[in-house]
Amino acid sequence: MRVLHVEGGAELYGGAQQVLYLLEGLAGQGVDSHLACRPGCTLVRRAAPFAQVHAIPMGGDLDLGIIRRLGRVIRDVRPDLVHLHSRIGADVMGALAARRAGVPVVHTRRVDNPEPRWLAAAKYRLHHRVIAISEGIARVLLAAGLAEGKLRVVRSAVDPTPYAGGCDWTALAGVLGAAPGGAARSGPVIAVVAQLIERKGHRFLLDALPAILAAVPDVQVLFFGKGPMAGPLQERIDRDGLAAHVRLMGYREDLPRVLPCMDLLVHPATLEGLGVSLLQASAAGVPIVASRVGGIPEAVRDGVNGRLVPPADVPALTAAILDLLMAADLRRRMGEAGRDLVAREFSVAGMVAGNLAVYRELLAGAAPASSPAAR
Q: Which residue intervals define the domain Glycosyltransferase subfamily 4-like N-terminal in the entry (predicted)?
């Protein structure tokens, strides 16, 4: 089987990381994988051991040239099917390129933002199968009119191995700017691991912080990620006098070394397909406070590996954070439960098997086999 994957992301965020997991897993199954991605993106280097990489410009939703450029790759590769992993123009332009070449198309939907029914009808008619990475996204797609026969659910996954080594105190000291040999931390540390974009809800944690600081004056908050909200967030942090407690850390490849050091991961998103950072936190044994939206309740079981609060509800967010900061034993139990949940329901092997089942079903033209990973 030869599969051409298309991913337009520049950094190794959640979606691109899933593509990397999938390529490695498919290589172990003997699948001949090819990857079309942006020149200079992280995947160009990281995917090379598992797939033949084809770097092509991808300018976004209005870049009609993707059809022509990807069409050339399809003609060269001659894949059995094309798997579109990214929006950024690839969900539509990539499907048009594959359709023109007469190649079956699979599209993975990773976000839960609603779409008008007319748009969903026009877009998803281009795809032979649509894979939702959570039941939450599947509900959104069905509500938009996607035919149930096209829809499959294959959850995102995480490899827990990099997070299993515990806290790297030297790495944490570097993150916090501590002097060599000095204390790495003076109080509890909260992490937000998400792109710096509006829907990730960083502003709600900043709204909650004065009340949190009144109860826990030495708390520190680290925002890991990049995005267009970096400037506005830093301006607000400075304006509100929070610079001693909140830092923008940017995108860091050493996250597996420092995430286990966190006392709590907070994810106050208003929209979220599933939340790979939630799986990473659970793999690291870190309890979570997150919004009850989209696919988040599949990754965070309320009272088990974290707490769920209504989106944009600052008092509820504040209370949940303080409850966990004040209860070290509860945090430890939730951290252990998170590790168990990831191992049981979000394994990379299960995700790879689920995608491979969709490929085989589509190419065979048969009804889907009964599987916990694909429906």
A: 14-160
249: enclosing H helix or E strand: strand 246-250
Look up tokens 């690291």; give the residue: 284
Instruction: Show the tokens assigned to 210.
Output: 């004065």
Single-letter amino acid code for the residue at 103: V
Reported residue count of the chain is: 375
Q: How confident is the model over 165-211, as pLDDT tens digits?
A: 888 888 887 777 754 444 556 789 999 999 999 999 999 999 999 99
Tokens at 64, concatenated: 């009609």
Name the CATH topology of 2-157+347-364. Rossmann fold (3.40.50)
Joined together, the tokens standing for residue 83 give 């798997």
Contacts of 261 (CB under 8 A, 6+ apart): 167, 168, 169, 171, 172, 184, 185, 189
And the tokens for 14?
A: 């959640």
Rounded distance between C-alpha atoms, residue 18 and residue 6, angstroms:
12
Give the C-alpha separation, 47 to 285, whole Å. Answer: 28
Map tokens 């009340």 to a residue. Answer: 211
Q: Round to whole Å and give the CA distance between 139 and 158.
A: 23
Residue-wise over 325-358: b if at least 16 C-beta within 10 A, else e? beeeeebeebbebbbebbeebbbbebbbbbbbbb
Please write the tens of the pLDDT for every residue from 36-48.
999 988 899 999 9
Distance between CA 123 and CA 33 in Å, rounded? 25
